Amino acid sequence: MNRTPFTQEPGINLAVTRYRGHRRPARIKQGAPQFGLINNSMKEPVTYAGQDGLDKPTASGTPRCPNARPDVFSLASAIRTATHRDMSGSQHALPSARSRPMRVSRHLSVPIVTTALALALAACGASGSADTAQNAGAKTTAQGGGAGSSAEHTDDISVGVKPDPKAVKLLPAAVKARGTISVAMDLTSPPTSFMASDNKTAIGFNPDFSRLIAATLGLKLQINNIKFDTIITGLQAGRYDFTASTMGATRDRLKVLDMVDYFKAGTGVSVPYGNPQGLGTHTLCGHRVGVQSGSTQQLQWLPQLSKQDCTSKGKPAIDAVALPSVNDALTQLVSKRIDAVMYDFTGLQWAATQQPKTFDVLQPLVTTKTVTVALKKNSPLTPAVQAAIQSIIDSPKYAEALGRWGFKGLGIKTAAMGVPQD
């Protein structure tokens, strides 16, 4: 991996790492190449863990498609298009999932997915205008959290929030002196954590809540966009101060993390629209179910459901297919490579709403749980962050943050230290 400096636009500090492969890995290894983007017009810088090579500089010295990250919505549309017509215009059908068993390999080599990626990223041409094609029909948002689109909520929810003296008093001297606090999250999971159509502004409930934490502590926020399954190791290594990534408390996580409750979430299952296989939450035995690598769904809820409904009754286990992100899982669901996706209910419901007649979310849910903000075990920041979370919960901003992402009714009363839910 070689870092290649290049001429950049005024106000942008951009470092690019070249990726030598031609296909996106199905699983991102720890220590993935990093590239950073700092937009001086934004409240907080956003740093990305990149692996797709889309940000290589052009001959003119500008990035070809800065920070373009296809989401499930553009990919789903592209795959549906590719299902009926290839690039030459001839008709073809997707290979049957039953006739060609799917295995998670080092690289995604399914031709249809590659075609879909190409279609979804068609904006990355000479003009470099990723917004136009990837977000066709979306309203342009103001950079840096201005008024923007009310649907995207790019405005900074923390504007006007005053530091809480009780929480500030608990800050370590070193943190108070530097004046910043860093958060890690995976910005591929709407509506909790994702990128606005400007490909610069982190939006969703988790970025909103993180901004409120920083403002309550009188600090500036730095958002680090990394793969979910690398967050814990990053916290342990001291690269980030905390994570707000809808993370449930488990016995193993509590061995290495301090975890503080901040709202309730649930785990659900999505199937293709119309549920052609007639699947139910408790009838997934022998079926391939996609999960995000490192998630509570992979580590806890799917194995528990498989044991409860399947193996304990002599039925075949649920076949877990671990993928880097929920976008990858939903993309494979659309292309019929897997039969269902297990993930946070809020994210699955959002995808079903944004892509009508593409996904159905099964009822009942697998489970509901309280999720946490997490820090390194015995972090000196934990008391201050816990106090800040309680201050937010007690303020009108908490209900505002929940409401604008459709989370009404998922609030809690107390920022308690997390207890294992496994």
Give an account of the 3D structure:
With 422 residues, the chain is an alpha/beta fold. Among the domains are: 165-264 and 372-403, Periplasmic binding protein-like II (D-Maltodextrin-Binding Protein, domain 2); 266-367, D-Maltodextrin-Binding Protein, domain 2 (3-Layer(aba) Sandwich). Helix content is 27%, strand content 19%. The chain has 13 helices and 14 strands. It has helices spanning 72-84, 111-120, 130-134, 165-169, 173-178, 205-216, 231-236, 251-256, 296-309, 326-334, 345-354, 382-393, 396-403, and strands spanning 12-14, 34-39, 46-49, 180-185, 194-195, 202-203, 220-225, 242-248, 257-272, 288-292, 319-323, 340-344, 359-361, 367-376. Strands 1, 2, 3, 4, 7, 8, 9, 10, 11, 12, 13 and 14 form a twelve-stranded mixed sheet that branches. A two-stranded antiparallel ribbon has the order 5-6. Helix 1 packs across helix 2, helix 6 (205-216) packs across helix 12 (382-393) and helix 6 runs antiparallel to helix 13 (396-403). Residues 1-43 and 50-150 have low confidence and may be disordered.
